[in-house]
Amino acid sequence: MKKVFYNPIGASKEPLLKKVRSLIKQGNALNFLYVVPTHGMLQKIKKELLKDTGIRGLIPGSITTFDYIVTEVLDTAGIHITEMDDFTRFRCVEEAVRVLREQGKLRVLQKVSMFSGFISALMFMIGEIKRSGLTLKPC
User: Is the pTM of this model over 0.85?
Assistant: First the structure.
């Protein structure tokens, strides 16, 4: 049975990296699954795990993202999702902002939403919220 590793939000990655790096050095790379929040983090963690191990690459699937796991579960259940590319995502957010602006629902953002760069900034903030793991659940 594989051990599943993930870092709690805000926790230091180093203790977990040290533990997983030790498994890799012992030849137990098939015995773990390291789950990270984003593809960017996946690349960083791979580099960190291979540092000082003398190993050039990891076995595919030993490090993955939460999104990939969800996609696999949905595929297994026969539910298929289509991923949006950056351009499509930009256009969807742009259209949503336009509709909200026309309905007067942007309140304090009404005027600033007209500036070029607003959609890009909004998409960046949405990405930061996703990466941080924030939810709408009250504390």
Answer: no
Reading phi first (left if > 0) and then psi (alpha if -120 to 50, else beta), residue 10 is in: left
- Strands across the sheet containing 63-65: 3-5, 32-36, 63-65
Long-range pairs for 60-69 at CB < 8 Å and ≥24 separation? 61/33, 62/29, 62/30, 62/32, 62/33, 62/34, 63/33, 63/34, 63/35, 63/36, 64/33, 64/34, 64/35, 64/36, 65/35, 65/36, 65/37, 65/38, 65/39, 65/41, 66/35, 66/36, 66/37, 69/35
> In the chain, pLDDT over 90 holds for what percent of residues?
19
91-100: average pLDDT? 92
